[in-house]
Each structure stands twice: as structure tokens, then as C-alpha cells.
Amino acid sequence: MSQLAIDQLSQVEVKTSPFPHFYLEQSLVSDEAITLIEEFPPLQKGGSFNIKDVKTSERLHHFIQQFDSTEVRQILGKKFDLDLSDKPMMATLRGYSRAKDGRIHTDSKSKLITVLIYLNEEWPAPTGRLRILRSGNDMEDFTDELIPGPGSLVAFKVTDNCWHGYPSYEGKRQSIQINFLTGDRAKNKHQFFHGISAKLKSIFR
After folding, report:
1. 6-203, which class in CATH?
2. Is the pTM higher than 0.85?
């Protein structure tokens, strides 16, 4: 059984400006978001954790693996005009946002597509909402402001101008990040650095 709302994922429209992206307010079927929120690992430190370094429930692991399926790869590839059939996939988790997080940036060129799935019960805070930006120097110059609520999903093609970020927020902010990468060397590099990051976090608790 698919936990992803495949029909909605297939039908959502891609916005091309300022760079190709789309947003789903609810990307999971029935009450899956509630269950996955409850089973999300308690990551109380900032930064990204490679999925291989975190103990996850079978249900959460299965959900992440759905993005590695032929069906989802084809849907995302078609939307962003990319062939993802043989591209390595990487998954990382975030559980806590530090005040310094969310600064304006573009993703590295070793990434082809970024998918963010948010697993938070609600989001009443005016900050911490992802913004799709027109430039790299003005957080207020945005086309979309996306709520990181229960099961919301945003995906974008990694381009030279895929500027994004969010106004500073400190506190629990849970998300899964899926990336399709340019090749195995890129995957090994990312996993290497995420592994070092996780070890440092455990040392400096």
C-alpha cells in the first residue's frame, strides 16, 4: 500500500518561476502523516542526519523507500524533465531548527532534485516557513511561502538560481529530505560528510 498520495503527486502543477518547483499541502494518504509524526525519531540537535545513521521505524523507512520506486522516479523525472531512472537517491532527516538555520542558499550542483516532506503536527508560527526566493540577497523577495505542516511536500529542480530559505526559527521542525544525485561519487561524498557531522554532534552534545 502506498503511503504517498500518488494521484495528487502526479497531478500537481509545476511552477516554473523563479525556478521549477511544486508544493503539496498534503502528500500522504488518510492518517499517515499523524502516524509518521508520532514515529519520527527524536532528533533534538540541529543539522541533517543521514537515514543510515538514525534508527527509524519500519513504517517511516517504508515511506522513504517509496521515493526510490520506479513509479515515483518517473513522476518526478517527468515534472522536471530529467531521467532519474539510474540516479542514486539520498535521504536525510532534520528534527530541530537552530536560529542560524534557514539562511538563503541554493543546493549543491551534485543534486538534481530536492524533495522536502514536513512532519509537524501544526505550524502556527509565522517564521520557519520555507520561502521560494527570486534572489540570493532578500528574504522578503519571495514568490511562495510554504507551511511545514503535517505531510506537506515541496520539490524543486536544483538550478543556479534555486534560492530558498526561511525566516529564523528555533525549535522542533521535523522534515525528511530526499535528493536525487548526479552520480555515485556525489552520493559517497554526501554520506561521508553527513557521517562526520553526526559523529561530531554525538561528541559535542
Report:
1. mainly beta
2. yes
